[in-house]
């Protein structure tokens, strides 16, 4: 048994009244303004550099050479943004004045919010720029990180983050359902009420096993949530338990008709029948149907080309957002349960290699790799679906570490649903509508997804 320190987020839905909602909105707005302030500051320095390069290009130098030879600009970071902010806030506005205007101070409201909400926003902007710069100069692998944008009101998530200062820790639970957010900048602390009890986390904190690092409060459609990030001392077994070892490897296939198909049964809740096919929970399906209706209504009410839509349209839009958030949250609960049980009951999980790019790309896809769009038409909203494919794989990966569980994968484009898991015969005529796999060679008949899961189990290679 070894102990490691891991970062773990505990998320709670909040019960927010009008007074608290006003406070949370104020914090979120302040955080957004601070982000934009820092972004503008970083952007100005980038534009300074760009002007230097453009001058060289105007003088006849080609782009590559001009980029290499452009005068260096010392790029500011979070601390410089913060210093600049301190010097600017509350100052008299120094722009042109129109008749009747009085000179108002800049960010006159800055004292109405805990300072820490600003600093995390500066940090977020600095990180976004750092990622973009690293990507631009080839120091960062993966997809190109574009230039950060200003956060526009109504188009970005309302959220803010407060960091738990080591010297002055202020985030704490004052009851099983009460989370205290520290004040600052002359503001008193405030308390948010949790929708469910945080007893488990509180026990971990009291025992010294978990230490709060920060809290992010964000609105998803109609609800506010607090995500408490903690440093947790986690005991990690050196090897899987005897029960896990006896169960061995499990192969899983993620699908649409059935959320998950397994080669071996999985017990979701104690006392329940172990399942090899796990469908979407019924309440999720009914919410999904409501979502389809709401989306249709929204589309009907939309006036094409109009800048301002009708009141009915915005009502429908809110409803769509609300249902989407509901589905996401409920689905997250299901996914967490599944990933937890998988790593508790088996010592190795075999799964497909998901390629997120391909999933959002072509709708039709190829015969072996049908586009997710086509498959998704059979069920839930596609964007939610795509997100949960990756999400389940991600959860399995990190939870596997906590239980000494191995991960095995099949290569990308592996035709898991077209091979016979018994004899290896390949079906080349199969369509997406076929729910069962019928082998023409050994005459095996099996659920399509379970057959795929068996192939994944058989052909996966251990990667960790
Ligand atoms: Zn066969």
Q: Strands, helices and their partners?
A:
Layout (H helix, E strand, L loop, with lengths): L1 E14 L2 H41 L4 H7 L8 H11 L26 H22 L22 E5 L8 E4 L2 E4 L8 E5 L4 H8 L3 E11 L2 E14 L5 H6 L1 E6 L5 E7 L8 E4 L3 H20 L9 H35 L2 E5 L3 H5 L11 H5 L5 H21 L3 E5 L25 E3 L6 E3 H12 L1 E2 L2
Parallel strand pairs: 8-11, 11-12
Antiparallel strand pairs: 1-5, 1-7, 2-6, 3-4, 4-5, 6-7, 8-9, 9-10, 12-15, 13-14
Bound molecules: zinc ion.
Zinc ion binds next to loops.
Count the E strands.
15
Strand content: 15-25%
What is the H/E order? Answer: EHHHHEEEEHEEHEEEHHEHHHEEEHE
Q: Unreliable runs, pLDDT <50, ≥5 residues?
A: 356-379
Given helix and strand content, the structural type is alpha+beta
Would you tell me which CATH topology of the largest domain applies? Nucleotidyltransferase, domain 5
Strand line-up in the sheet with most strands: 2-6-7-1-5-4-3
Strand count, sense and closure of the main sheet? 7 strands, antiparallel
CATH C-level category of the largest domain: Alpha Beta
Rg measurement, Å: 27 Å
